[in-house]
Specification:
Blueprint: H1 2-18, H2 36-39, E1 50-56, E2 78-80, E3 89-94, E4 100-107, E5 116-118, H3 120-126, E6 133-140
Parallel strand pairs: 1-5, 2-4
Antiparallel strand pairs: 1-6, 2-5, 3-4, 3-6
Length: about 140
C-alpha cells in the first residue's frame, strides 16, 4: 500500500509541474475555490486514494509539539498520518457530508484504527466535529 502512495505522490508532482494553470483543489463545500497560495495549484488524479476513519485532535494538544517539530495550531489545516512524509498535502473527502479540504501532514498517527487525525479547523470545515469521527478518503497531491 505504501508503494501506491509513493507512486501517487510522484505522479501528482509531475502533474503539478506540467499543469500550472489547471484546476485548483476545492477546499470547502460551499463553492470556495482555493487560491494558488492555499494549495499550490494541484490536480488530483485519484490514484493512491485510501479510505478509512478520520478523527480530530482534542483541545489538550493545543500548542504541543508535533512529530515534525511544529507546534499544533487548531486553526491550521493540518493532519497526522502514520507514514506519509511531513509536508505532504492530502485531499480529504468526507463521505457523509460530501465536503473536501486540503491538509498538510505535520504529525504521526499512532493508532491502527484511524486513517488520519485532523486539526480542529479541518474537522469543522468537513463538518465532523459533532460526530467526532467520520469515514473519509484521502488522496496525496
Amino acid at each position: 500500500m505504501k508503494s501506491h502512495f509513493a507512486m501517487a505522490i510522484v505522479a501528482a508532482s509531475a502533474v503539478m509541474v506540467l499543469s500550472q494553470s489547471e484546476a485548483l483543489a476545492r477546499t470547502r463545500s460551499h463553492g470556495h475555490q482555493a487560491t494558488p497560495s492555499d494549495v499550490e495549484q494541484v490536480a488530483v488524479s485519484g490514484e493512491g486514494t485510501e479510505t478509512g476513519t478520520a478523527s480530530y485532535y482534542s483541545s489538550r494538544y493545543n500548542g504541543r509539539l508535533t512529530s515534525s517539530g511544529r507546534r499544533y495550531d487548531p486553526k491550521e489545516l493540518t493532519a497526522a498520518h502514520p507514514w506519509l512524509p511531513f509536508g505532504t498535502k492530502l485531499v480529504v473527502r468526507c463521505a457523509a457530508t460530501g465536503r473536501s479540504i486540503v491538509v498538510t501532514v505535520t504529525d504521526r498517527l499512532p493508532s491502527n484504527r484511524r486513517l488520519v487525525d485532523l486539526s480542529r479547523s479541518a474537522a469543522e470545515q468537513l463538518g465532523i466535529v459533532r460526530r467526532g469521527i467520520a469515514q473519509v478518503s484521502i488522496t496525496p497531491v
